[in-house]
């Protein structure tokens, strides 16, 4: 599978050849670090497109058959589908192979997969912190993971050698790997990724449903509205799964957000210019520092 100095995966299977799975395949191919890539999915049009675009070398809709020869199997389907797919894939994989995933929420995935681990196949939970609002094989591109982070959340059931190999896989495609526990991952992502998506979806719905005027007011949107709401074009099924799978941490962040919004409303109602200025300045300082 790999030598001491050169990282190489002989056979990789990608379940769900979309933005995340497809981009990993393309990046490993570009780096010359993968032999054969099998794309596994449900819909033939997307699989055929993946084949045509050179994202994968072989396609199949037969899950168990598709993973049999793989050294590494990457699950890159919506979060709620990952545990059931893992349960079917694990007994079909060869001993010594590694199962990993790219799901945006880790707690439920780890909890629902670990009881099915037999010890013959290692499971390394992962989450590349890179993406766009686009989906499907056509959206995949080889540089998606360059200069990004990838979080791995191994548990005491995860062999260190398997974590080390998946770490190398992500480093090979240009990501900095960070290891943390599952709960910390889900709380951080609830704050920095899941909450912003909920706010973007809410904003578009709130403004888009405002029908006081005859015209569609979204047509007046300037750069600010467009920048802020790009992520509201993300796949609805993917985000339904994320919201349900990370419910507790997300609800806590939504409540925190409601409190801040309440404070803003009170300051506007009270015409408290000083408080508003401080609120905006504090936000600007925090945001400018991340750029
Ligand atoms: N889109 C993003 O920016 C990011 C997404 N993720 C996570 O990566 C995973 C994949 O997301 P994307 O690649 O964006 O989605 P995508 O929609 O581009 O690709 C997912 C693929 O999985 C297929 N699929 C769905 N259910 C399936 C099933 N039961 N069996 C086989 N194939 C199935 C779909 O047909 C599609 O081709 C999700 O868990 C998501 O939360 C992680 C980081 C970033
Ligand atoms: O499009 C964007 O800017 C994103 O935020 C992409 C994204 C979506 C889901 C993730 O779990 C990680 C990254």
Automatic annotation (TrEMBL):
- The Prephenate/arogenate dehydrogenase domain covers 10-291
Q: Name one GO biological process term.
A: tyrosine biosynthetic process
PROSITE patterns listed in its UniProt record: PDH_ADH
Which domain of life does the UniProt lineage start with? Bacteria
Give an example GO molecular function: prephenate dehydrogenase (NAD+) activity
The UniProt keywords, alphabetically, are: Amino-acid biosynthesis, Aromatic amino acid biosynthesis, NAD, Oxidoreductase, Tyrosine biosynthesis
EC numbers: 1.3.1.12
Q: What class of enzyme is it?
A: oxidoreductase
Which InterPro entries did the record assign? 6-PGluconate_DH-like_C_sf, NAD(P)-bd_dom_sf, PDH_C, PDH_N, Preph/Arog_dehydrog, Prephen_DH
Q: In which pathway does it act?
A: Amino-acid biosynthesis; L-tyrosine biosynthesis; (4-hydroxyphenyl)pyruvate from prephenate (NAD(+) route): step 1/1
Checking Pfam families in the record gives: PDH_C, PDH_N
Q: What is this protein called?
A: prephenate dehydrogenase
Reactions listed under catalytic activity: prephenate + NAD(+) = 3-(4-hydroxyphenyl)pyruvate + CO2 + NADH
For this chain, the family text in UniProt reads: Belongs to the prephenate/arogenate dehydrogenase family.
Q: Which Gene3D superfamilies match?
A: 6-phosphogluconate dehydrogenase C-terminal like domain (1.10.3660.10), NAD(P)-binding Rossmann-like Domain (3.40.50.720)
Where along the sequence do coiled-coil regions lie?
Answer: none
């Amino acid at each position: 599978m790999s030598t001491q100095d050169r990282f190489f995966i002989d056979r990789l299977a990608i379940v769900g050849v979309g933005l995340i799975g497809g981009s990993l395949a393309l990046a490993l191919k570009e780096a010359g670090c993968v032999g054969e890539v099998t794309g596994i999915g449900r819909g033939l049009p997307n699989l055929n497109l993946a084949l045509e675009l050179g994202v994968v070398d072989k396609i199949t809709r037969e899950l168990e058959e598709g993973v049999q020869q793989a050294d590494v199997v990457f699950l890159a389907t919506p979060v709620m589908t990952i545990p059931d797919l893992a349960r079917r894939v694990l007994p079909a994989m060869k001993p010594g192979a590694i199962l990993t995933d790219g799901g945006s929420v880790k707690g439920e995935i780890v909890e629902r997969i670990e009881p099915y681990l037999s010890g013959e196949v290692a499971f390394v939970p992962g989450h590349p912190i890179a993406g766009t609002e686009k989906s499907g094989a056509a959206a995949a591109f080889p540089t998606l993971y360059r200069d990004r982070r990838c979080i791995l959340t191994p548990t005491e059931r995860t062999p260190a050698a398997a974590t080390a190999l998946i770490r190398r896989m992500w480093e090979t495609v240009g990501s900095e790997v960070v290891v943390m526990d599952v709960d910390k991952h889900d709380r951080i992502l609830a704050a920095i990724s899941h909450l912003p998506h909920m706010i973007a979806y809410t904003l578009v719905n709130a403004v888009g449903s405002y029908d006081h005027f005859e015209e569609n007011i979204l047509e007046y949107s300037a750069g600010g509205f467009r920048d802020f709401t790009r992520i509201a074009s993300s796949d609805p099924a993917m985000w339904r799964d994320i919201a349900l799978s990370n419910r507790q941490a997300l609800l806590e962040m939504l409540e925190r957000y409601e409190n801040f919004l309440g404070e803003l409303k009170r300051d506007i109602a009270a015409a408290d210019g000083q408080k508003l200025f401080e609120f905006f300045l504090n936000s600007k300082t925090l945001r400018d520092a991340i750029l």
